[in-house]
Every structure is written in structure tokens, then in C-alpha cells.
Write the C-alpha cells for this entry.
Amino acid sequence: MSDARFGLDRKIVLPGPLLLDGGGSLAPVELAYESYGQLNAEGTNAILLCHALTGDQYVASPHPITGKPGWWTRMVGPGKPIDTDRFCVICPNVIGSCMGSSGPESRAQDGQPYAMRFPVITIRDMVRAQALLLDHLGIERLYAVVGGSMGGMQVLTWAATFPARVSAALVIASTARHSAQNIAFHEVGRQAIMADPHWRGGDYYQDGRGPDAGLAVARMAAHITYLSELGLTEKFGRRLQDRDTKTFGFDADFQVESYLRHQGLAFTGRFDANSYLYITRAMDYFDLAEDHGGHLANAFRGSATRFCVVSFDTDWLYPTSESRNIVHALNASGAPVSFMELSAPFGHDSFLLDVPDLDRVVDGFLSAGGL
Amino acid sequence: MLRPDLAIIAREIAPGARVLDVGCGDGTLLRALRDEKQVDARGMELDRDNVTACVAAGLSVIQGNADTDLADYPDAAFDYAILSQTLQTTMRPDLVMDQLLRIGRMAFVSFPNFAQWRIRLALMFGGTMPVTKQLPDRWYDTPNIHHVTIDDFRSYIASRGVRIEGQWFLRGEKLISAGAANLRAQHAVFLLARS
């Protein structure tokens, strides 16, 4: 007998209210998610996957808008490191996003989109909403929580907020707090959106067009931070785009310009500008130590969770020093932790790309949990 | 089969203890301790491939450097800190040992004895830095940057007011007596404790 709570393209509406860190509340709470693989009879094989800033629940199934394969098909599937033959993998869309979970595009009580009336949320609010989803699914304890980048922030927050519900935590290319540089890059993106005349204070949903130019610039700036200088140089160098000489104008003469413009434009087709504002804000507010008296180790005191922290040597967005900061705190709290800096040329994006060592580590770390 | 110095350490460690193996390599000792003595086994290792292999084997191992990263652990976090065949490769062996005895209640330290007679003879009569089965690297590519003898180690330990709780000496795979160990032993294993 099939259980309608599990499968692809699921959505539930929970009554809430979800009390938020910012003081407000959210009700009802819509949560869109996908699940892959079967929950075993004891309910002990569930893995929660947390997606990154512009990710979504389509981790291993085609994206409904772009038609592209899921964002982590290389990692999640039958026989893959996150093996859906063994595990029941659940990937929820974070609140604040635009792929089905409650966000600025959702309808408020008055039937109109929230837009900027949507409450400012935090990473912990996202996690608390996910906990409601797990309650709904009847999953008391997770075999593991796994995530890269903003997903890693959720993993850390899960372990700190619901330690008894997390057996193992895998944090990839992430950080325990947003640095001034991280916030600065996000602010550039937000200002680009808000400077677009089509943003109109966020009330653009009825206009037939939104602040696409601003959102594209935000994406272009952010995209640079996801790549390494070496990667950019190898991929584009100073090569020209479909021409033999410079035009002495402001067309996309260089391949790298053309590439970024394409990335920016493609992004506007699948992402909501207001969601981008809300989620980047949640990341900027993230400072796990601040929530625990200024000492990150306090966040994990007495935790029985197994941790694995992975960084990449070319990631300058969340560099290895940030992962070491997490590891230091975990050591101080006595939690069992593994850490490694993997070598990969792709910068921050390495966690999504072909890095065989990451596959080995994920497989080994998860298998060590006994399933 | 464990390397002889590791076999001694594995035998001596109490079941269920909390252990940090500094320079744990591919995790051979940690696996043995975990599987045979239910030890809470943690490791630190410099080499990325080794760390990956350890994590793939389900061990809790951190990529790190004995010279710089032991400071991250709180005092007395472990019952035993282990430094096997690594002391002579560190930048500051004295500071590393201070750290070992800070984070561990006790510390196992094993190292190759540079005063063993074959090495003495090789230097005396060969006039070149010895290359032996026990120390197979040449002067320019050896990871051993602080050659130490058993007598050096003992006098250092005495000067720091550290207690020797146990000592074992090896020639090849064989345990030998403590008599003239500085001349006879190829490897030494010491168990140390703060006084």
C-alpha cells in the first residue's frame, strides 16, 4: 500500500503557527518536498537533505521549470553514495523559497501574495518548519542530515536545535556564521534587485514582469563567488565570445561576460526576486555561536551526534578556515567529528560537481551509521 | 597484523577508553581499538588520502597537523593520546609532547632509535647519513627532521617532570629487554603521564 505522504512533488499545508526567531509567526505553513526510497518499518533510515540558497526539493528528479536533471543526481539515487535503495531521502523546499513552500510569493490571509509582508526568517526557522514536516511524516529520529553551503547551515542548526533527532550530521562547504564578506556580497545582490524599477517595493507579482534585470545582476555577482579564479581562468581566460577582435563597445566581448549574462538570465526564469532577498537575509543573520552565548562549542554540548565536516581547497566563499572553526567547536564539545579539506578545482560549487573523493567520504560516513 | 609498536599500544590500552591517535595514517590502530576494545577512537592525520580512507572506514578522523592543530582540543579530553612514529617528523617535538600530555591523561609515544648500533656504525665507518631498513630515507627526502635517541628522549622526559609509566623496546618485531636499549633497540615505545 502506498503512503501518499511520500513520493515526488509532495506538498502539505500545516496549520501552524510556526513561531519565528524574528518575533512573528507563520500560519499556515506550506511545505513542498520530495522523498526518494522507502522508509523502513522502524523509521530509522530517513536522511534529510537540506538544499542551498537557490536550490530546491528537486534533488534527484527533473526540475519542473527548466527540465534539467535534479541538482544532486550524482550523489543521490539507487547505488549512489546517498543510496535510495537503503535510505529514505527527504528533501524539503525551505520556507522563504519559491518552489512551493511558504514564501513571499505565497498568498497571505487576504488572498494577495505576501510580497514584502512575508516575515523575515532565519535558518533556524527553516529548520523548525522541517521538523514539523518530519512530525507529519512520522519520523522521530534522522539517520542523517546532509547539506552543502546554506544546506550545511541547516545541518548545523538541526544538530544544535534537535540533537536527539539527529544521529549523524554531514556539513559540506559551509560555515557556522556569515562573515562580513559574505554579507557584503549578498547586499550587492539585494541592492541590485531593489534598484530595479520593476521591483516596486516587492509588489510586482501582478505586473507580468518582475525585477529580472536586478535579479540577474544579483545572480551574476553571486555566481562569481561560487567559482574559483583558477576555474574561471581555465574555462574562459581572456577568450572572446564569437568574434575575432574586441569591439570597443559594451557588448559581451569576453566569454566570461557572455557566460555570466546567460547565468543571470536563466536564473530569472526559475527564481523569485523577493525569495532571493529573504533567503540571503536568513543566511546573513546566521551566526550559530551568537545563539549560544557566543561560544560555538555550547551549540553542541552533550551532543551524541556524529559529525563530518568537509571543505574544498578552492572555496573562497566558505573557506577551510570556517570549517576548521566548526571542527574546533565540535572538538571542544567532545562530539565525534571527522574533517577533511578536499582538493577540487571548482571553488564553492565543488560540492555539486564531480569530486570522487567527496563520494567516498559521503558513502563511508553514512555507512558507518550501521545501515 | 598490527605493526609491532602499535600492537604494544593496542594491548596496553584499557577497553572503552577515549583515545586520540595523532598521525593515525590509514587508521589501522584506530580500527583495531574500536573493533576489539570498544574504544572511543579519534584520529588526526596530515595526509588527505589517509583521512579520506579513515572516514570511508567509519572512523572519526580530522585532517590536521600535530604541530599546529592539537591546540584545538580541550584539556584532558582523552584518556590516551598516541603519537606513533611521528615525533621525529614534527617541527617542535617538545611542544607536541606538551600538547599530548595536556589533552591526554597519558600519552603513548613511539619512535625509531637513532642510536641503535647499526646506525652508529653506518655513520662512524660510512661517514654518510645512514640509510637502513629501519630508516630507509635519504638525508634530503626523509620526513624525519628531528632524529632522536632513547637516551635523548629519557633525559628530555626527566627534564619536563613527566613520569614514565611503561617502556618497551623492539628489534625488528621482537620485544627486547631494557638493558642497553639505547644501543640495541631499533624502536622504543613509551607510556607517559603527567606527574
In short: The first helix of chain A runs from residue 123 to 137. The two ends of chain A are 24 Å apart (CA to CA). Residues 10-178+287-367 of chain A form a domain with the Rossmann fold fold (CATH 3.40.50.1820). The interface with chain B takes residues 306, 308, 324, 327-328, 331-332, 334, 336-343, 357, 360-361, 363-365, 367-368 of chain A (CB under 8 Å).
